[in-house]
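Lecture notes, unit on protein representations.

Consider one protein chain, 696 amino acids long.
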Amino acid sequence: MADRGASPLSLPDDWPDHPDPFLALNHMGGFDWDLDAGVMQMDAQAHEIFDVRPDEYDDRPRTLGTRLPPGEARRLDTMVSEALKDGSENYGAYFRVHRRDGSLRWTHTQGCIRRDETGRPRRVIGIVRDATQELRDGEARREQAEEEDLRRRQTNVVQLTTAALAHARTVQDVIDVLKDTHGLTHLGATSLVMGQLEAGRIRLIAEGPVGSFVPGTEVTRIDEPYPMSEAVRTLSPCFIESPEEFATRFPGLWQGITGLRITSAAYLPLIVQARPIGAMGLLYSDRRGFSTDERNILVALGSSIAQSLQRAMFYEQEMDLAQGLQQAMLPRTIPSVPGADLAVRYRAATLGGSLGRDIGGDWYDLIPLPGGRVGAVIGDVQGHDTHAAAVMGQLRIVLRAYAAEGHPPATVMARASVFLDELDTDRSATCLYAEVDLSTGVIQVVRAGHLDPLVRGPDGTCRRVGVPGGLPLGLSAEFGRLDYPVGTVEIDPGDTLLLCTDGLVEQPGADLDDGMDTLCALIATGPDDVRELADRLIDVAEERRGDDDVALLLLRRRVPDGARTGGRLKRRVMPGDPGALAEVRRMIRTAVEGWGAGELADEIELVADEMITNVLMHTEGAAVVNVRVLDGGGGRRVRVEVEDSSSALPRRREAGESGVSGRGLLLIETLTDVWGVEARGGGKCVWSEFVVGGAA
């Protein structure tokens, strides 16, 4: 072939006609070609290169042409002719020469074209040399460069794959990295299979391309005749270099994958600390056999994949443990509450890292309370570890206990703070406790360093309700501030109360108020159903992949059947104030008549008077009177509650001789449909209910 890029041959004017000794020392032969005479003289070294004896050569270039293969001769002649015509000063070319023994030898020639003053070529002075070893060395260098480039590319794939695997957290992440176009496919593999070792069996976790699954291979024993089983059993790679070998060694599997046109395969054991955890197979459809370098690279790749798979398995085990612990700490079920639609959700953080880092201290709770009330709790213990979850579980239980005992919201929060302060922990917690009266829509809210609640109206509008708050739990006792102010919020039928932890609000680089505004906008455009809305909010949190867990509680006050709303009357009667007692009697009668229960006004007034008088006579504090209408769960009822600060329960006594006292409980039992006593923190509540027959 022509070498038009060869270095030019520049010869001085005094170049000898026959520089045999000089050229011979460099294993070159020389020639002097007189173009006008058509004579080409060559030295002895040139004769040797063309393998012609002096008596066989007549100084005619055409004679030399017979020593060249026909194609080589035509190509060389064309190249020289073009150089002579186009004004070139030099030419160079590689060509092959027939030896006497029938072999071909690569030869290289360079010629310097001498022209007259008109530019006509008159003479060519040049050299020829044996280029066989040169080209052989060049070919060897090219092959070596190609091998090094292939090895470099394969090593680069291993490095890139290892780097990508460093970010894989789950087993599926590992599989996705390997199946990615920037993964193992760069090694030329047609498909990938992977199995995970579980209790002496290999469970298939990656099955290659769609439609390549072989029935019966989803779970296999390590003693079965499969290549992955052999790799795990022997702890050695299993290389299959041809379809014939595959069919002979593993006929059962080969029958199932014949349609994939597999020509070779490499099955690698995945070993960590001398213990197999699985196996991986690379299937090829365009190659046969594996070089030593390729085998070494694949083994190194298998080691890297094994480390990543082990890390992913540990991570999933930790996630299962963390989520199991978290679920054990959260309420197993949320009770149904008459008059309300409820939805609760929890999403774990995505921190990764050490054991337990994906578990947090966020929690929710819903506590049924007497009188149609319900306590809604949302809280967040500081930290993201198992200790935070353990503290959360204890705090949730004691807060539920204090609420169930009947303590008012401020007392519930204060006692929970004291409990956390006395607990052997350095953790604090934010919390919000809302006591909801579904019959009236009145909510008493206590906040301990937590986010404000949100209320969404039936029309979709969402507002943030500012509630006064105290210090986070666990800090109030330390700073001597156990006072938790109570805020009042009212929700109408169709309104939804939303409580959440800061993981739903906070975003990196964003202000908390901006986050609340964003959340309000999201809630406003969300679905009306509380469960669908809760799912939508958690999906958004999942898309952000935040580093904090999220707890969420939604309570929607249901519209009563017949669109009938209840009423409520609340008054405080102090000891020694007969005027207040008379006023309460009058207001009770007016309210009861307004609620359509006029036929029961006398009975309700009499029972309320007896209950209030009993408090004023037998306790040292005030009587707090609540009268309200309840709908559902047995019909429309009027409920009278009288609270006091005494824990002493009412008891039946015999009437005295005068008959003035001792008949209170008998009177209540006779006139009411049902009555009872409930503990309320440091005091109690005596209540009575009357079934109303009329309509409001």
